Amino acid sequence: MNNISYKIKGGVPIKGKITCMGAKNLTTKVMVAALLAQDKTVLQGVPNIGDAEITAELLRSAGAKITWSRNDGTMLIDATNINIYEASLPDSRTNRIPILLLSILLHRLGKAAVPTVGGDHIGKRNVDYHVDAIKKFGADVVEKKDKYIAHANSRLKACHIDLPYPSVGATETCLFLSVLAQGTSIIKNIALEPEIIELITMLRSMGAIIFLSTNRELIVHGVEKLNGTNFFIAGDRIEAASWASLACASDGEIEVSGIRPDLLGNFLPHYTKIEGGFKFLSNDSILFFRKEKLRSTEVETDVYPGFATDWQQPFATILTQANGISVIHETVHEKRFGYLAILNQLGAKTEVVSSCLGSVPCRYRGQDFMHSALIHGPTKLTAISSPIVIPDLRAGLAYLIAAVLAEGETQLDAAEQIERGYGNLAEKLKNTNIALQRIES
User: Fold this and answer.
1) Closest Cα to residue 295, out of 317, 280, 273, 311?
2) Which of 102, 108, 181, 417 is least crowded, fewest Cβ atoms below 10 Å from its Cβ?
3) Burial (CB count <10 Å: 0-12, 13-18, 19+), residue 392
4) What contacts 310, CB < 8 A, 6 or more positions away?
């Protein structure tokens, strides 16, 4: 991907219309799932984003043939000839997809080698749960230099797994392992994010036998084979909340379409609590705005159905404009507050503390991380003369909203990080009044 910068003139309430793309956190996973079938799968609503392109490259390296119409979001994945056990990927530093492909290649070829998963500015990409699950299903896994290498001497065998934490990625790996394993698997303490439920729906349409029982438990009867399917990708709940935050923070009004309201779960009550307003216009269209003067609040991130960790950065930019002191307690990732330093440079008043300020059990309690943030408001934001470098996807969206709030012109460099998950924002935001110039080099 080329180097991309955004120049944004701030200080104006944002009004207009934005259409959500297909969910990033679902798209890449269903692309991988398509390789479980030894024929063709058609995906509808595939977003034109960097992560989808990276995943397509990974799947092609294993022998898949992919035809992608970016105009209408249709992708055809032909997994008939998966014949390369060593998948390659030039850019896997912040992409967790390679570890998911291990399970697929073990089913298809009995052996697999994929790039190691790196880390980014929000913390280490821990794959221990994935590796442990693969071993319990009967395969061997070793890490050598920059690769994970796995092999199985026979068909994978079903097992019982109790995940230490309801990790989304680990739940996905267990699903991929169990659907074609011999016997019945029971997987406990699974993630229940909407993207997981959608993935289960896709796997069922391919012929998988998956029961979702109470208390975060899956019962999976392994089958001999899976068939290709046609699957429509739901709208992106993280993106929708981002544009809701932009509307509220800037005291504007944005109609967001392409998103089912039920996917926004606990975002909406938190949004209402701080005086954000919304109105349902249709079954997949919502108008977001600000009702009254913004009020401070307390937010704790958590696994679904809790407040999503990817919602907290754009939500924090709203809270810079709220009256009083707001508290955010991050329980999912260990390094999620780095973006606040840039907001402070723009005029915000925030501080991070090592205390866990809340009641939700913190995944990293007792470890030397900044667990909570205090946000004092309201504050006036002002553009700074030097460019701001975007470190990761979600921080980048927080910077964009802050740049809209700031008086003057702000330049955001490394904006390709945003486009990994949101696509070309100059094109996406063309039906709003945002003053954004996209520069590509």
Assistant:
1) 273
2) 108
3) buried
4) 238, 394
pLDDT in tens, 106-131: 999 999 999 886 544 544 546 889 99
Contact by Cβ (8 Å): 268, 280: no
Are 373 and 351 spatial neighbours (Cβ–Cβ below 8 Å)?
Answer: yes
Q: Which domains does the chain have, with CATH numbers?
A: 4-20+235-440 (3.65.10.10), 24-231 (3.65.10.10)
Q: Are 209 and 40 in contact (CB under 8 A)?
A: no
pLDDT of 93 reads 47
Side chain identity at residue 100, one-letter code: L
Pairing of strands 209-213, 4-10: unpaired
Residues 131 and 148: their CA atoms lie apart, in Å, by 9
Tokens for 103? 């399970």
∠ at Cα 51 (329, 59), nearest 5°? Answer: 130
User: What confidence tens digit (pLDDT) does each residue in 376-404 have?
Assistant: 999 999 999 999 999 999 999 999 999 99
Q: Whole-angstrom Cα distance, residue 22 to residue 45?
A: 5
Whole-angstrom distance, CA of residue 92 vs CA of residue 14? 35
Give residues with Cβ within 8 angstroms of 36, minimum separation 6: 79, 104, 107, 108, 176, 179, 180, 203, 206, 226
**Burial category of 433 from C-beta neighbours within 10 Å (exposed 0-12, middle 13-18, buried 19 and up):** exposed
Q: Which residues contact 295 (CB under 8 A, 6 or more apart)?
A: 273, 274, 275, 322, 323, 324
CA distance 357 to 375: 13
Q: Rounded to an integer, what distance in angstroms lies between the CA atom of residue 384 and that of residue 375?
A: 20
Please give the torsion angle defined by the CA atoms of residues 315, 316, 322 and 323, in that order, rounded to the nearest 10 degrees. Answer: 140
Find the distance separating the first CA and the last CA of the chain, reported in whole Å: 10
- pLDDT tens for 154-198 read 999 999 999 999 999 999 999 999 999 999 999 999 999 999 999
Secondary structure (3-state) at 60: helix
Residue 120 is a catalytic residue:
yes
366 phi-psi bin (left φ>0, alpha ψ -120 to 50, beta other)? left
Confidence of residue 365 (pLDDT cuts 50, 70, 90): confident
Question: Which among 39, 51, 91, 120 is annotated as catalytic?
Answer: 120
Name the residue with tokens 């110039």. Answer: 437
Cβ atoms of residues 42 and 74 within 8 Å? yes
